[in-house]
Design goal:
The complex is a heterodimer of chains A (about 70) and B (about 425). Chain A is mainly α and about 70 residues long. Helix content of chain A is about 40%, strand content about 0%. The two termini of chain A are about 20 Å apart. Chain B is globular, with a radius of gyration of 25 Å. The chains are: A mainly alpha (about 70), B mainly beta (about 425).
Chain lengths: ~70, ~425
Amino acid sequence: MVKKIILSAAIGIFFLCLTAGCANVKEYQKNKINDAEMQLNSRKVGITELNFESYREGASGANAGKVGGGCGCN
Amino acid sequence: MKKICLTVVGLYFWLLSAFAQQYNVDTSSYKNQNLKLSEMDIVSGYFNQDGDHSAITGGIGTQKLNDVSNVLELKFIKQNEINNKYTWDFEAGYDHHTAASQAYVNPLGTSRPWGTRFYPSVNWQVEKNNGVTIGVGTSLSTEVNYHSFGLNFSLGKTSKNKNTDINFKGQAYFDQVVLIEPTEFVPKPVESSPSTYTTASGNIVTAGGGIIKVHIPRTPRNTFDGTLTLSQIVNKNFQLSLIAEGIAQNGYLGLPFHRVYFNDGSEKIENLPSTRFKLPLGIRMNYFLGDKIILRSYYRYYVDDWGIKAHTASLEVPYKVSPFVSVSPFYRYYIQTASSYFSTYEQHAPSDTYYTSNYNLSAFTSQYFGVNVRITPEKGVFNIPFFNMVDLRYGHYSQTTGLQANNIGINLRFK
């Protein structure tokens, strides 16, 4: 478990380094970035499927879905 | 019928007046703005499933279930003289489900096979002009067998060029599990009464048809969650976010109406550890390919101390048919290993300390595919002002356990 946490942290740091080389995108250049379909969060209409995925599967989290409360499913 | 028409007309005019304020632009010196309704979302969904591994009947038996959910969300904003933006988010949800297996809390199949859940929440957030965002919120959820109270706070910072955003969110849920047990485990108040049985809400029905309301004890379940999210615009067409989350649970983590049958023919209620730690790590990457196609991808790695490891990968490809209409086919693949505490029907040994036959904790793969259609006409849906968007989504879900499900959702947005 500890090894996995360390590995995960290393991967996270790797991605941070990767994104350090990102372009400085000005506000007037963000017409595509600001498109509704480009948003990084889940669609609101997908709330019901996030719910059933957390109820019917063992994994949860890292997707803005339920991690507690709710139906009491384990 | 007249009442429904009048209600719809009344709602229409209320919406017009609520959103009309944004067109009264004051070009003189700054005046303190009142809180105004900026967005209203109505989300409804219908879900049905079927399978043959109900945990209520020990890992065998029907999993037929239907669920209708409805959520109303109202977002109010206010901006002050130094451009701090305040947001109040009010949400209320109502679900109703029918589950064939729920009838078998009583082995005769006479327990109530339906339930309802109500879940309101309030969240407040301030986005300061220096890029710092602070938020707090609270939530409730209540149904016959489960009650939840949640708190959350968040702290975020956006870079000066607004290309990088880092956010931490902490959540805590203080829940109560109502210990409704299968009838055969509940001591009968009247000896040798074959017509006496326990309902799914825990009441006793006597031989004469009378109902004895029994005080059913509750036991706590607590969940503590911390989520760190880093979002980064990489270039004009590409942005991504990294999500790292840690979830710690303690208390009663099983469900009191889940049966387990052992290899010696005996039967008990499932017994699971009183602690659980989960570690999901996710990445989202969205890329605008050309002028009409977007690639929305997601991957999650999950591990917990109950022995479950899982991978989730999904891809959604919105195609912009026009500036106002997009069609998005999607596909999701999921695979998990079994929990250390899971065995199938009559496979657990009586000497096992922890045991469950809940197939949510078994080894399986699942696939989910479907299509999303989003319509955002310039002049409003059906030319109705402020009726900003319709988002319609359908998907079919299947597991290698044999569980099959369908989900359809709709989001109506007014702003």
